[in-house]
Amino acid sequence: MKKYKPSFNKPSAKDDQGVRAKKHLGQHFLTDENIASKIADTLSYEGYDKVLEIGPGMGVLTKYLLEKKSEIHVIEIDTESVEYLESNYLHLRGRIHEKDFLKHDLSQIFRDEQFAIIGNFPYNISTQIVFKVLELREQIPEFSGMFQKEVAKRICEKEGNKTYGILSVLTQAFYEAEYLFTVPPSVFNPPPKVDSGVLRLTRKDNFTLPCDEKLFFRVVKTAFNQRRKTMRNSLKIFNLPDNLREDAIFGLRPEQLSFQQFIELTQKIEPYAISGK
């Protein structure tokens, strides 16, 4: 495939210097072209024709996304990065959104359309990005990108491990989670102090829970907030009857339960929690 080359206006001094990474925004700009290309290839580009990149910076990933047969949008909170992209990526004209991803109403960009999300995510907001994706899962069939390695591993972790937690259960209830590859600090400017990890989430065909969704989230969060306790003790707040609390599942600790078991547990609790019995 012919490589995309950004369309340049006559560069300004700021363009020549690039964009300054800003610590308060958690910016670490990827500089390795091969890794950028590999990340762009993590999406299937099937079942949707629009892609949103979060935090494109100077566009090292963006240019590989623009090779794909999809309509690429980028959302960037950093004004300096936006100015750079507008000057150097003319193909993105009208699709550069200077907004805060966590606060912006994405229906203003995509309405009810299906779209994928990708990016080199700032470490300081990466988990919040995942929670927003879960809220918008009816529109997001696929999600991939780079996180701090520890966070990426946690999202993809299975039950029975210490790193398995709230984010693991809630994400895996709706998406198939795959840890793809590790990225060293040396390929960033400035380099972070830890390794990064790239993952992919693929929405499950049946991503509607067979239980009350709000209660499911509450049960998972309540259990892991006291992860050293058994479910019998950590879920006392629900005032469940003694005969129900004798069920074997209540003798387990939260990291021992798969997301399917958390769904089953929520179904057991639901008649009491919802009705107030």
UniProtKB/TrEMBL annotation:
Entries under SMART domains matching the protein: rADc (SM00650)
Broad class of enzyme this protein falls into: transferase
Coiled-coil intervals: none
GO MF terms, alphabetically ordered: 16S rRNA (adenine(1518)-N(6)/adenine(1519)-N(6))-dimethyltransferase activity; RNA binding
Domain Ribosomal RNA adenine methylase transferase N-terminal: 35-205
One Pfam family here: RrnaAD
Record-listed E.C. numbers: 2.1.1.182
Catalytic activity, reaction form: adenosine(1518)/adenosine(1519) in 16S rRNA + 4 S-adenosyl-L-methionine = N(6)-dimethyladenosine(1518)/N(6)-dimethyladenosine(1519) in 16S rRNA + 4 S-adenosyl-L-homocysteine + 4 H(+)
Main subcellular localisation: cytoplasm
Gene3D superfamilies the record matches: Ribosomal RNA adenine dimethylase-like, domain 2, Vaccinia Virus protein VP39
Subcellular location per the Swiss-Prot or TrEMBL entry: Cytoplasm
GO cellular component, as recorded: cytosol
UniProt KW keywords: Cytoplasm, Methyltransferase, RNA-binding, rRNA processing, S-adenosyl-L-methionine, Transferase
UniProt entry tagged with the keyword Electron transport: no
Positions with a binding annotation for S-adenosyl-L-methionine: H28, L30, G55, E76, D100, N120
NCBIfam families with a match to the protein in the record: ksgA
Record PANTHER family: DIMETHYLADENOSINE TRANSFERASE (PTHR11727), DIMETHYLADENOSINE TRANSFERASE-RELATED (PTHR11727:SF7)
Its biological purpose: Specifically dimethylates two adjacent adenosines (A1518 and A1519) in the loop of a conserved hairpin near the 3'-end of 16S rRNA in the 30S particle. May play a critical role in biogenesis of 30S subunits.
Family to which the UniProt record says this protein belongs: Belongs to the class I-like SAM-binding methyltransferase superfamily. rRNA adenine N(6)-methyltransferase family. RsmA subfamily.
Annotated protein name in UniProt: Ribosomal RNA small subunit methyltransferase A
Organism: Christiangramia gaetbulicola
Lineage: Bacteria, Pseudomonadati, Bacteroidota, Flavobacteriia, Flavobacteriales
